[in-house]
């Protein structure tokens, strides 16, 4: 059976001030052509269909168009909700849409109810595990510790239990939206840390033939059976070096896997350039970036006059301007943002404790801080779900 694995469409998202809806529509057209031309048997979409819980109307219209075009092909599509989606909104009408071959899986309680498709070698069971927010689903899965590994592990126990009841030789595919150990993150993914831990081990997916992951925006192979497709478009300059693609996966009769990357159309390259303004304007090596979307970091010790306008004369698609003067680490003029760069909320809070009382928090106090940050993040998630 040939699968096309994609995820993290983030319909409705922009890149700085650039509206990406046309680029997202071009990707949908590319996906439909790939399904048709490469004789795909099933499409799997591993979450973050939308960029936010209440997407703009234009994004909803594009999603509607995608569903109709996929249904017209007669190729089944299995889709889960991600941490950016409203599971309830995305799942509206799922029972009716099922009849058109579009299978929306947004209910954690139904994670062990697979979509079963067949080829000449037998059945393939597709299990959709929507994003599992630990604080919201721990009771459903009967876990005492609200962590990603606990809830995802409990969901996979249900999957394996159901798979054990099926005919011998039944192959299996799991769709999941999570941060799995070994994956490389970028700046454009929303933090899902709970209790100071975000990642789950890839071993949680043991027992299935293929785990089609979503959440991380870079295409990655954690092992032959566990892969991220990545996002089809770049959504931050941290993705400047990404090769945007989907996975074309052939699932053999014995569950053997072969996979090929299918490149996605990207409207414009991304580039990060760094140096003094005069160097950036004069360096001939940077000519290759003149048609790219550019993030420029200026290292001038004194902020130059009208830097954005001058940069745009050479790099007309400059979207981001960052000032990072070359200074000694102990320079008192270092900005607050520079001093905090790369530090987590937990680390910043612990630094504050050191500043106030001269000693850092003990283990119990660290746990209290962690719990407070988790509570704030969970409250934000609940408010977004309510919207």
Q: Can you summarize this structure?
A:
This protein has 387 residues and is an alpha/beta fold. 32% of the residues lie in helices and 23% in strands. GO terms for molecular function: 3'-5' exonuclease activity; endonuclease activity.
Written overview of the protein:
With 387 residues, the chain is of the alpha/beta class. The chain has three domains: 2-263, Purple Acid Phosphatase, chain A, domain 2 (4-Layer Sandwich), CATH 3.60.21; 270-326, no CATH class; 345-386. The chain has eleven helices and 19 strands. The strands form five sheets. Strands 6-5-4-1-15-16 form a six-stranded mixed sheet. Helix 10 packs across helix 11 (363-386). The protein is globular. It starts with a strand and ends with a helix. The mean pLDDT is 90. It comes from Streptomyces kanamyceticus. Residues 267-353 form the Nuclease SbcCD subunit D C-terminal domain. Belongs to the SbcD family. Residues 1-217 form the Calcineurin-like phosphoesterase domain. Heterodimer of SbcC and SbcD.
């Amino acid at each position: 059976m040939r699968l096309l694995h994609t995820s993290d469409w983030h319909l409705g998202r922009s890149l700085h001030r650039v509206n990406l809806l046309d680029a997202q529509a071009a990707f949908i057209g590319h996906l439909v052509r790939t399904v048709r031309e490469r004789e795909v048997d099933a499409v799997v979409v591993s979450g973050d269909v939308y960029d936010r819980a209440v997407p703009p109307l234009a994004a909803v219209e594009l999603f509607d168009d995608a569903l109709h075009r996929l249904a017209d092909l007669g190729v089944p599509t299995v889709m889960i909700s991600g941490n950016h989606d409203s599971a309830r909104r995305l799942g509206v009408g799922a029972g009716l849409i099922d009849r058109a071959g579009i299978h929306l899986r947004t209910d954690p309680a139904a994670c062990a109810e697979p979509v079963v498709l067949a080829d000449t070698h037998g059945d393939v069971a597709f299990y959709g595990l929507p994003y599992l927010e630990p604080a919201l689903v721990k009771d459903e899965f009967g876990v005492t510790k609200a962590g990603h590994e606990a809830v995802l592990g409990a969901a996979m126990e249900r999957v394996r239990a159901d798979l054990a009841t099926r005919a011998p030789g039944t192959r299996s595919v799991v769709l999941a939206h999570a941060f799995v150990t070994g994956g490389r993150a970028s700046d454009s993914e929303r933090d899902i840390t709970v209790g100071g831990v975000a990642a789950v081990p890839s071993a949680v997916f043991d027992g299935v033939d293929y785990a089609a992951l979503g959440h991380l925006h870079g295409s990655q192979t954690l092992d032959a059976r566990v892969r991220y497709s990545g996002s089809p478009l770049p959504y931050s300059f941290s993705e400047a070096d990404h090769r945007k693609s989907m996975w074309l996966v052939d699932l053999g009769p014995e569950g053997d896997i072969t996979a090929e990357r299918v490149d996605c159309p990207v409207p414009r390259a991304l580039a990060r350039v760094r140096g003094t303004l005069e160097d950036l304007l004069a360096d001939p090596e940077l000519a290759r970036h003149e048609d790219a979307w550019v993030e420029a970091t200026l290292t001038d010790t004194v902020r130059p006059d009208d830097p954005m306008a001058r940069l745009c004369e050479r790099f007309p698609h400059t979207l981001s301007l960052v000032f990072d003067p070359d200074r000694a680490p102990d320079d008192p003029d270092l900005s607050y943002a520079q001093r905090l760069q790369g530090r987590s909320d937990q680390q910043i809070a612990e630094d504050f404790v050191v500043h106030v009382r001269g000693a850092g928090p003990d283990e119990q106090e660290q746990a209290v801080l962690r719990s407070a940050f988790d509570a704030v993040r969970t409250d934000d998630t609940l408010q977004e779900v309510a919207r």
